């Protein structure tokens, strides 16, 4: 058993008695009270546990807890300040991109990173960026709508207002 | 279980020497799945994530020394001109999330016949830099794969890098999967033209117990290209030769039927990929301005 | 940055979005919806989900997110063989493992009730003497950490004696076949041709011999449908908490709380009221949560250890943790006259039910009664049956028996159209049923059945551009090609194909089932405003039922604020979230409860103000905008005024029209409540050399009667269509025919479509009211899953010229041979 310290959503967090084989996903969900990152496959095939590790989207299920020591993690819970919604989050609601919602946290993290990287993505770019995130409910059409909507709204917003 | 986190390459080698059973862990694509599902419970995990040089590449000489943990995303984005075959292969690896973490060291360490990097490494003629406290070995890629999920590494060795000659000619990579993204190869094919030596090399994935080259096909086509003076004229090899090349690539396979595809399909598909990638590579060699968008 | 509260309250009404939205060309619903003026956020509007904010912030608590300070982790040991006698089970080493608190086997079950099942109680809670399928639960472990539980389970020693496996009709119904369930006492048992047949339903209508003699063209075909998995993303999970009264509180993801409880309580030896269930967040269902999974095991472990027990199946276990869609073999004969009229249909549909019955009998009823499709044909002879085998148990999945039949009859319709020499769409339209048509069961279709119109709509949509991968200047975007990012083609070998299909699905539970729902609605004043509260046991699995409830309450009660209470067993049953029935049935119950509340409110108002205001006595009083409004629009009083301190609460049950069982020999009977229709046009690009398929576009037209929430309706149609796409091209649970072992229980080898496999999906929504249903609505969720698959197969056949008889179609099917 070991202790793991990492920064999650801007806060320094610490988990004790972590089994060496545990994933970052397990630590987030079961030890740090952040179950927003989802556990649909635990084999890197669904993207529902997508978090940003030092800014880069990764599957938290494929990161060993010990590998996250000292690193910065952003989860869906960190996409917007408490009580607010980021543009992407709002767009997912408005566009009908949420049904059961189990894929939503991972998709939000991936879509948010895409729009940081590419503010005006073409449809094919959106599909490629989200090709590691499975959704079983929507058929992805409303997710495409949501990302297009978020891109449009973000480009219409003044820089400073952006989440 | 012990979680070992060496801060330097030297320390990692020392740990591996002391504990040859320690399982190296970098991108986690394979190892973490085995842990999550209880398929493997090693005594020790050896986290290589803190060793910065593994995530760097050096490219001053005729070869690129590609750190074992350079993520596929960076290979796609940064090495397309130098290692076009590997960059194409990198783009077909799993998902964006996995491409952000995984590197060729993992593919080589696991040595699954389905690893996406293998055909490109075979075609480009890479060398694996295997290091232990005893020293450094450069293992030619042709000698690296020994069997299904078995490679030529000694128990105390770690993969530091692969050394890949900078491309002197066109390279191609194509992979068949039953889904348009995030799919393990049913079969894959890599091709590299080496105009400087007037040779070509191939690599086949998922169609034999290990990644393999189609040597007979290489020799046959090499002969035709020489005989027909194709290298000099830029003329493509005759269609009959391209067909024969494809047949010989198919014949180099020794595939199995499994849940991902049949042996017969794999053999046939490798032939189709061989013919197509040859066409694309030769078109590029002739200097056509064809640009493949959507691929890094 | 958007303010949360504002974003949450503002209803998303199409057409009133910001300038930037419209410029981006998004969210314009590609449909013609008739909007009805009413209370803001009411029926007919694209109201946002009430759970949307929680779901996008990560705060929504799914069943696997539950956590308790003192909880243990439950884990199941599953069989590694498909058919065997269990000679011994030794749990001693597991039990002695530090951190392990309980290990339970069949012998530890507390009562004589040790089996469960939706209709037939044939499924052992834990295996007893016999293993009947791969992955059957044998023992349950509770431990401090999931890894400890997993390791302990591995230490349980099970000694098997392997038995020959029954994996198909031939082996299951051989005269000397091992009988999988001896001493059957279920009501189908006396009538089946072999004890390994769960249920058999014939349909006989008209004189098929004579009709066949009139046929100028006859086509016969044998078809095969692979085993599909629901593949909901949130795996089976939940938490059982032992209570001081000896009972248990269970928080779980399910489709039907009360049906779960009915099966759980007797096994625990508890009265139902001591098994208190609350719906935890559900990560998708699609039929796969209609049967129990971990419910009883978690409760048993919690009651044994006195500690809360959390269980979460991982993806591997999930493939064994729920029933799948029945694989099927279907043999069809269709006949038609020269002028293209169907003469007769003969069909034999064999569904593989696997080791336990689950909902196989009802799936058989559906497959039989819907076997002909949405067509008029007077002479029909059908036999549908489900087998017991050693394959994984099969039961409910979206489309429920109608999916397999549609795949086969639509392939037949194409072949018959070709034989007659007619256009495939026109041939379908010529034979299409309409309102007043008679089903093979003799049931008259008594509400709109716009089959020909749906086909017209999809066929008249503009076709997508050819060669979409060309980017100009000789460039290629491989993402638009078959093979996608894998770079298999730059246009070589790619052939386009177009295909059509249409299907018919029943809505609601059939065959005489007492299908009802319960709703409790409360109206009271809070903060000077009348607010409604809706309490049902409806399982919100993602479909948006909770949104619909808020809309109905707004429309019926004229309020803005509506609270949806958590679903639990403190209120009566809402029936299952399946069979496309919840908006119809629980929606109907909420509507009825609201109407009763309204009557009581008006009574209150009359009592309070009637003496002085004669308008209170008039007819046609409405609740609107928080007020009581007279027929002439005059405001009589604010709702808050009428209510004062009083709360009006009504709980009521609501039923749809009764149905009747099918005759055991002829299949005749008014077995279904309502029918639902959808048509698809699929456009595909096929790399004919590699057998890789890219679906370019998948257009759907569906009659929904009334789009209660247009955005959610389109979401259902697109989601359902995509599940049909999956089983057309990639999804199949592969079972080894010699061992009965599942070969691909993972998301690595059971592939579901990614966003790069899924095309643009234009949707045409018709709203032709069914007068028997609340608001005229028609169940939406399943119909689009039917015709999507055969439309894609038809398009692939068109591109390749191959006569494909099986789904999913794999690359080797398009290239081998």
Q: What does this 3D model show about the protein?
A:
The complex is a heterotrimer of chains A (163), B (296) and C (817). Chain A is an alpha+beta fold and 163 residues long. Chain A folds into two domains: 2-76, Ubiquitin-like (UB roll); 87-161, [2Fe-2S]-binding domain (DNA polymerase, domain 1, Orthogonal Bundle), CATH 1.10.150.120. Chain A is 33% helix and 17% strand. Chain A has a five-stranded mixed sheet with strand order 2-1-5-3-4, sandwiched between helices. With 296 residues, chain B is α+β, with helices and mostly antiparallel strands. Chain B has a domain at 171-285: CO dehydrogenase flavoprotein, C-terminal domain (Enolase-like, domain 1, 2-Layer Sandwich). Chain B has a five-stranded antiparallel sheet with strand order 4-5-10-6-7. In chain B, strands 1-3-2 form a three-stranded parallel sheet, covered by helices on one side. Chain B has a three-stranded antiparallel sheet with strand order 11-12-13. Among the domains of chain C are: 72-163 and 235-282 and 289-321, Aldehyde Oxidoreductase, domain 3 (Alpha-Beta Complex); 453-503 and 674-815, Aldehyde oxidase/xanthine dehydrogenase, molybdopterin binding domain (Aldehyde Oxidoreductase, domain 4); 516-655, Aldehyde oxidase/xanthine dehydrogenase, molybdopterin binding domain (Aldehyde Oxidoreductase, domain 4, 2-Layer Sandwich). Chain C is 25% helix and 24% strand. Chain C contains 20 helices and 33 strands. In chain C, the strands form eight sheets. Chain C has a seven-stranded mixed sheet, with helices on both faces. A six-stranded mixed sheet of chain C has the order 10-19-18-17-11-33, with helices on both faces. In chain C, strand 23 and strand 24 (529-535) form a beta hairpin. Chain C starts with a strand and ends with a helix. The model of chain C is unreliable at 1-38 (pLDDT under 50). At the A-C interface, strand 6, helix 2, helix 3, helix 4 and helix 5 of A face strand 1, helix 2, helix 3 and helix 18 of C. Strand 14 of chain B pairs parallel with strand 21 of chain C, so a sheet runs across the interface.
């Amino acid at each position: 058993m070991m202790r793991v310290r990492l920064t999650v959503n801007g806060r320094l967090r610490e988990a004790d008695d972590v089994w060496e084989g545990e994933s970052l996903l397990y630590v987030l969900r079961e030890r740090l009270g952040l179950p927003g990152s989802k556990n649909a496959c635990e084999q890197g095939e669904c993207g529902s546990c997508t978090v940003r590790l030092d800014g880069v989207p990764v599957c938290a299920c494929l990161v060993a807890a010990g590998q996250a020591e000292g690193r910065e993690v952003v989860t869906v819970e960190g996409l917007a300040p408490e009580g607010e919604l980021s543009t992407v989050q709002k767009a997912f609601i408005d566009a009908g991109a949420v049904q059961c919602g189990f894929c939503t946290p991972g998709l939000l993290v991936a879509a948010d990173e895409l729009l940081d990287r590419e503010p005006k993505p073409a449809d094919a770019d959106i599909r490629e960026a989200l090709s590691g995130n499975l959704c079983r409910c929507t058929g992805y059409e409303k997710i495409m709508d949501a990302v297009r909507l978020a891109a449009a709204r973000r480009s219409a917003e003044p820089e400073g207002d952006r989440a | 279980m012990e979680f070992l986190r060496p801060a330097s390459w030297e320390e990692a080698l020392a740990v591996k020497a002391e504990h040859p059973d320690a399982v190296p862990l970098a991108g986690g694509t394979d190892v973490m799945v085995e842990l999550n599902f209880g398929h493997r419970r090693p005594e020790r995990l050896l986290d290589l994530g803190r060793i910065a040089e593994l995530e760097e590449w050096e490219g001053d000489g005729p070869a690129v020394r590609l750190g074992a943990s350079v993520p596929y995303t960076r290979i796609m984005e940064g090495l397309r001109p130098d290692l076009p075959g590997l960059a194409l292969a990198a783009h077909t690896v799993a998902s964006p999330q996995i491409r952000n973490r995984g590197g060729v060291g993992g593919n080589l360490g696991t040595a699954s016949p389905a690893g996406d990097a293998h055909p490109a490494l075979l075609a480009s003629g890479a060398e694996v830099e295997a290091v232990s406290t005893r020293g450094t070995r450069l293992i030619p890629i042709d000698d690296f794969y020994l069997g299904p999920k078995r490679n030529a590494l000694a128990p105390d060795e770690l993969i530091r890098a692969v050394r890949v000659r900078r491309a002197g000619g066109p390279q191609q990579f194509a992979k068949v999967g039953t889904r348009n993204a995030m799919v393990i190869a049913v079969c894959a094919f890599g091709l590299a033209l080496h105009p400087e030596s007037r040779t070509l090399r191939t690599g086949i994935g998922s169609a034999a117990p290990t990644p393999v080259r189609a040597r007979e096909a290489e020799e046959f086509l090499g002969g035709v290209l020489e005989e027909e003076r194709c290298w000099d004229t830029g003329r493509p090899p005759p269609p009959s030769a391209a067909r024969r090349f494809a047949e010989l690539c198919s014949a180099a396979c020794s595939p199995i039927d499994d849940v991902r595809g049949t042996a017969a399909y794999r053999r046939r598909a490798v032939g189709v990929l061989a013919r197509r990638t040859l066409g694309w590579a030769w078109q590029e060699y002739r200097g056509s301005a064809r640009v493949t968008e959507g691929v890094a | 940055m958007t303010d949360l509260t504002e974003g949450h309250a503002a209803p998303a009404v199409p057409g009133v979005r910001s300038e930037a939205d419209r410029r981006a060309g998004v969210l314009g619903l590609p449909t013609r919806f008739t909007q009805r003026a009413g209370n803001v956020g009411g029926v007919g509007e694209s109201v946002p989900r009430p759970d949307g904010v929680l779901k996008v912030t990560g705060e929504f608590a799914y069943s696997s997110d539950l956590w308790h300070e003192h909880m243990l982790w439950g884990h199941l040991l599953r069989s590694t063989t498909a058919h065997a006698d269990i000679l011994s089970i030794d749990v001693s080493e597991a039990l002695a493992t530090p951190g392990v608190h309980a290990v339970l086997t069949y012998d530890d079950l507390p009562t004589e009730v040790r089996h469960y099942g939706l209709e037939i109680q044939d499924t052992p809670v834990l295996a007893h003497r016999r293993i009947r399928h791969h992955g059957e639960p044998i023992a349950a472990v509770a431990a401090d950490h999931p890894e400890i539980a997993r390791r302990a389970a591995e230490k349980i020693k099970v000694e098997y004696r392997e038995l020959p496996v029954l994996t198909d009709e031939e082996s299951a119904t051989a005269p000397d076949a091992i009988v999988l369930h001896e001493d059957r006492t279920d009501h189908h048992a006396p009538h089946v041709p072999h004890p390994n047949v769960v249920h058999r339903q014939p349909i006989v209508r008209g004189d098929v011999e004579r009709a066949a003699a009139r046929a100028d063209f006859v086509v016969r075909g044998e078809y095969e449908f692979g085993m599909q998995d629901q593949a909901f993303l949130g795996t089976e999970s939940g938490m059982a908490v032992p209570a001081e009264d000896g009972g248990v509180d269970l928080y779980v993801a399910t489709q039907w709380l009360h049906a779960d409880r009915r099966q759980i309580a007797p096994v625990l030896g508890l009265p139902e009221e001591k098994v208190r269930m609350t719906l935890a967040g559900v990560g998708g269902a699609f039929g796969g949560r209609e049967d129990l999974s971990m419910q009883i095991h978690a409760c048993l472990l919690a009651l044994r250890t006195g500690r809360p027990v959390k269980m979460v199946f991982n993806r591997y276990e999930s493939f064994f943790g729920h029933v799948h869609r029945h694989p099927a073999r279907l043999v069809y004969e269709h006949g038609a006259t020269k002028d293209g009229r169907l003469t007769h249909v003969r069909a034999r549909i064999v569904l593989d039910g696997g080791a336990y019955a689950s909902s196989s009998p009802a799936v058989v009823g559906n497959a039989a009664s819907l076997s002909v499709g949405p067509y008029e044909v007077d002479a029909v002879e059908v036999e549908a049956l489900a087998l017991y085998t050693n394959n994984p148990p099969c039961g409910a999945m979206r489309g429920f028996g109608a999916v397999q039949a549609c795949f086969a009859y639509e392939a037949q319709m194409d072949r018959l159209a070709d034989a007659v020499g007619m256009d495939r769409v026109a041939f379908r339209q010529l034979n299409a049923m309409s309102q007043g048509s008679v089903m093979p069961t003799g049931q008259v279709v008594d509400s709109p059945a716009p089959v020909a119109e749906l086909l017209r709509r999809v066929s008249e949509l503009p076709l997508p551009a050819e060669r979409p991968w060309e980017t100009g200047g000789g460039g290629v975007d491989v993402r638009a090609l078959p093979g996608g990012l894998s770079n298999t083609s730059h246009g070589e070998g790619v052939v386009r194909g177009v295909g059509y299909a249409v299907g018919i699905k029943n809505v609601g539970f059939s065959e005489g089932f007492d299908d009802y729902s319960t709703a409790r609605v409360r109206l009271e004043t809070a903060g000077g405003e009348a607010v409604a509260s809706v309490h049902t046991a409806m399982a919100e699995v993602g479909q948006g039922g909770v949104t619909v409830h808020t809309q109905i309450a707004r429309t019926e009660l004229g309020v803005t604020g509506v609270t949806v209470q958590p679903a639990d067993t403190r209120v009566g049953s809402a029936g299952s979230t399946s069979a496309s029935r919840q908006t119809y049935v629980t929606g109907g119950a909420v509507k009825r409860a609201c109407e009763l509340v309204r009557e009581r409110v008006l009574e209150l108002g009359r009592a309070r103000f009637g003496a002085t205001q004669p308008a209170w006595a008039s007819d046609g009083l409405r609740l609107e905008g928080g007020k009581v409004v007279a027929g002439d629009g005059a405001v009589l009083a604010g709702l808050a005024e009428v209510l004062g301190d009083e709360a009006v609460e009504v709980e009521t049950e609501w039923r749809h029209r009764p149905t009747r069982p099918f005759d055991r020999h002829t299949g005749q009977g008014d077995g279904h409540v309502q029918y639902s229709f959808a048509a698809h046009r699929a456009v595909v690009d096929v790399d004919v050399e590699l057998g890789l398929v890219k679906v370019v576009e998948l257009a759907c037209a569906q009659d929904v009667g009334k789009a209660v929430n247009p955005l959610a309706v389109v979401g259902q149609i697109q989601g359902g269509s995509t599940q049909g796409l999956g089983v057309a091209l990639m999804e199949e649970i592969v079972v080894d025919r010699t061992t009965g072992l599942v070969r691909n229980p993972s998301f690595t080898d059971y592939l579901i479509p990614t966003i790069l496999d899924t095309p643009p999906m234009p949707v045409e929504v018709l709203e032709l009211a069914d007068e028997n249903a609340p608001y005229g609505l028609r169940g939406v969720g399943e119909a689009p899953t039917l015709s999507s698959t055969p439309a894609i197969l038809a398009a692939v056949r068109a591109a390749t010229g191959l006569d494909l008889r099986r789904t999913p179609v794999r690359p080797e099917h398009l290239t081998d041979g």
